[in-house]
Write a structure and sequence with these properties.
The complex is a heterotrimer of chains A (140), B (111) and C (216).
Chain A (H helix, E strand, L loop, with lengths): L4 H23 L8 H19 L1 H7 L2 H24 L14 H32 L6
Helix pairs in contact in A: 1-2, 2-3, 2-5, 4-5
Chain B lengths: L1 H28 L3 H27 L3 H31 L18
Chain C lengths: L2 H21 L3 H21 L3 H23 L15 H18 L16 H12 L5 H9 L1 H22 L7 H5 L33
Helix pairs in contact in C: 1-2, 2-3, 5-6, 6-7
The chains are: A mainly alpha (140), B mainly alpha (111), C mainly alpha (216).
């Protein structure tokens, strides 16, 4: 009998659904409660569930901490990059109207990119925190 | 038709609330840890299902009903699993599953 | 009419949980109570019609924060050390005086949800009225967070990133052990699962034989 049979079967059903829901919350943040922070936390929760049931070593193979350090910085860079892009286009810092032809279209694009950056950073940092705490042998 | 739906929703919500109260009583009054998991795990799902069904009746045929059905399915999958995980962790952590132990009988290993 | 009743119930539960957190010595139970506290505060936010905030509080407080606290508990002791006997007079007076000053300060605050409060007068009004035509998305919270106050959100994201690298700098990360070493050290890849549910012990226990006194 497998180690943790019931939990593994149910989590194999649920982890893709949780990730899909995280993506839904991320990109639907314009129309319903959501956005980058919640989506990042939910996505990190799915990976942590996998790490709890299938072993931290397997999770480190899927998402090595070196990659996560890069993506954590990438999220902040995307956000700041959008700001610098608007400055290069002639507007103020983070003035999304400059990103596209007219105002609301530029705002849509700006908010989309900015929330994407936030989501990526929050996921990476939550996972890095979990790796840092759970990766050691228990103290007592 | 509206009145029938309303009455049906009321009945379902009251049933769900009753199950919730029964579960709460069980958690407070039952003696050991595993009996309490039994009370909490079963009544948790039975409490949520009629309430969600009542909300589905109130919402009619719309996107909200489909989302509520998805939530109900998710609850049916995860709530018993979390009770199982809790009981499994408690068993491995060393909580004694027998409510009372007769000191004369030899200890038997539980499956 | 029913809203204040729900508010009072939820806040009363939160007070009880806060008192229980202070009194409990078992840190595992305290972590669980923190999770419950976050869930109840998410409920309070929902009653106040703040859906985004409730969503974030439930996800972060009742989800990730609990997991990280439990993961921290695997590295420290599980019970809090009992404090020394005797009533601490000086800290008690300081706390009382500070609390009294705070309560006196709240008498000057406007009522909850008062539309004439100063915070609703200057830019909040403009955001609510002009968000539809300037930004064009239905969710005003997202438009304020990401567009009108985008600079603050950039600061928030930088703070989260800084917290992450601070923890890594302090604690360090475990490198993945190569497959050969994992196969030959007597434990398979499954041996390290469930650090938390098994409270740090990776090998199977024989069920029915309690190793330590469990809480009945």
């Amino acid at each position: 009998m497998l180690h943790h049979t019931v939990l593994r079967v149910v989590s194999k059903l649920l982890i893709p659904v949780i990730m899909l829901f995280a993506l839904y919350v991320q990109f639907h943040g314009d129309y319903s409660p959501g956005g980058g922070f919640q989506a990042g936390v939910i996505f990190a929760a799915a990976i942590i569930l996998y790490a709890l049931l299938f072993g931290l070593d397997n999770t480190l193979e899927v998402l090595p901490p070196d990659l996560l350090q890069w993506t954590a910085a990438l999220g902040v860079l995307i956000f700041a990059g959008v700001g610098i892009d608007t400055v290069l286009m002639g507007g103020n810092f983070l003035d999304y109207n400059r990103l596209a032809a007219d105002g609301p279209a530029g705002q849509h694009l700006g908010i989309f990119l900015v929330e994407l950056g936030v989501g990526i950073t929050v996921t990476s940092v939550m996972l890095l925190l979990y790796y840092a705490f759970a990766g050691r042998n228990p103290g007592k | 038709m509206e009145a029938v739906l309303d009455i049906l929703s009321w009945i379902l919500i009251v049933i769900g609330g009753t199950f919730g109260i029964i579960g709460g009583l069980g958690i407070v009054r039952l003696p050991t840890f595993f009996t309490r998991i039994h009370a909490a795990g079963m009544t948790e799902t039975m409490c949520a299902a009629p309430i969600v069904l009542a909300m589905m009746l109130q919402a009619g045929w719309s996107l909200v009903t489909f989302k509520l059905a998805a939530i109900l399915l998710f609850l049916f999958l995860t709530s018993p699993t979390s009770s199982h995980a809790l009981a499994k962790a408690a068993l491995h952590g060393g909580v004694d599953p027998m409510a009372t132990r007769d000191p004369e009988e030899p200890e038997e290993a539980e499956g | 009419m029913i809203e204040p009743v729900i508010d009072i119930l939820l806040l009363a539960f939160m007070i009880v949980i806060a008192l229980a957190v202070v009194r409990m010595r078992d840190l595992f139970g305290v972590a669980m109570l923190f999770s419950l506290f976050s869930l109840l505060s998410a409920g309070v936010f929902t009653v106040m019609d703040a859906a985004d905030v409730a969503f974030t509080e439930a996800a972060v407080g009742a989800g990730i924060s609990t997991i990280l606290m439990l993961a921290t508990l695997t590295r420290t002791a599980r019970r809090e050390r009992p404090r020394a006997k005797g009533v601490p007079i000086l800290p008690l007076t300081v706390v009382f005086i500070t609390g009294a000053l705070l309560v006196f300060g709240t008498s000057d605050l406007p009522r909850l949800g008062d539309p004439d409060a100063p915070i609703h007068q200057h830019v909040a009004d403009r955001y609510l009225q002009r968000s539809g035509e300037e930004i064009g998305i239905p969710n005003v919270v997202t438009s304020v967070l990401a567009s009108y106050r985008g600079y603050d959100t950039l600061g928030e994201t930088a703070v989260i990133f800084t917290a992450g690298i601070a923890v890594i700098a302090l604690l360090g990360l475990r490198r993945r052990r190569p497959r050969q070493e994992r196969k030959t050290d007597g434990r398979d890849a499954l041996g390290e699962t469930t650090v938390m549910p098994t409270a740090g012990m990776a090998d199977e226990r024989v069920p029915g034989r309690p190793e330590k006194g469990g809480d009945g």
